[in-house]
Amino acid sequence: MDEISLEKIKSNFKQVKNILSNSTRVHIDRVEYRTFDEGMCDAVYFICKKSQGLNSLEAFIILVIHKLHFYEEWDILETTTTDLKNIFDIWLLPILEKANFKKLTELEVQEQTQWIVYSIQKLIKKNQNAKNLKYSDRWGIYHNGVEVTPVESFTLPISSDIKLALGLTADWNEIEIFYETSDDYVFFSWFTGA
Predict the structure, then answer these.
(1) Are 141 and 154 in contact (CB under 8 A)?
(2) Comparing C-alpha atoms, which of 178, 150, 143 is closest to residue 164?
(3) What does the angle CA 156 – CA 158 – CA 161 come to, to the nearest 5 degrees?
(4) Most buried among 7, 30, 65, 177, by the most CB within 10 A?
(5) pTM for the full model?
(6) Rounded to whole angstroms, how far apart are CA atoms 33 and 153?
(7) DSSP string over 139-162
(8) At what angle do helices 13-21 and 56-72 cross, to 10 degrees?
(9) Tens of pLDDT along 109-158?
């Protein structure tokens, strides 16, 4: 994994701007584990295949920008090159300034992500046949916006061997991790509504 740090990103704005301007050309898979439960909420995997030829810094910036557009509900295709400096200064930089960039082991990544995904899957299964479920479209597993059924047979489209990982946020109510497998770059994001 190339060095990924706040200092490297801040000191290479020209490179970051170039990465941002090319972010719409990169295919990103998004897997959402959705609930309307205030405690568990949603967990989202943003996945970029290595076969697209990106290095880890490029993949990191692109996955963060896709995550930003997803949560802010912006259409990434409407982002123009004139927006890039503002996106970097007003949105991206403050997010990265709060990040820890702490190296994690494969076991730490599994420990921090699997209990969340398992708990959400359990809630989804429990409520999938409930009558009069409030906001039923907020419950389920969605791959690129399409609901996956049955939930039990879904497998994440990610290689299981984690090579390198960075913990960006690790609070009781928010976890964000960027990691690399043999085939993928992954950005995992989860936070509670509590």
Answers:
(1) yes
(2) 178
(3) 125
(4) 65
(5) 0.91
(6) 14
(7) SEEEETTEEESSGGG---SS-S-E
(8) 60
(9) 999 999 999 999 988 888 776 655 666 667 889 999 998 888 788 888 89
